[in-house]
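Handout, section B. The chain below has 93 residues.
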Amino acid sequence: MAFTVKERKKRYADKWRYWLFETLGFRCDRCGEDRDLQFDHPDGRNWKLSHFNISDRIRRYVKDYRNGNLRLLCGKCNRMDGARRRLIKNYIK
């Protein structure tokens, strides 16, 4: 059975996404929660998610992981961290 280009990109992304989750430990870096996990860039990222398709986005995540700028956070911790960063950014202005 031949896969379409879109299906191949999705399978590629799923494989690497799983590898990242496995490598990062399947747990939130802050609270240890194992649900609603999201990739987070502690030092921020210099690219926009909307500019990349899923396979290119995963390539960026892998590159960021290898550069030490990727971690897993649960949704709650990620929102709190983002709010803290925005508060600090606005306070410094």
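Note. The chain has a mean pLDDT of 89. Compare this with the example in section A.
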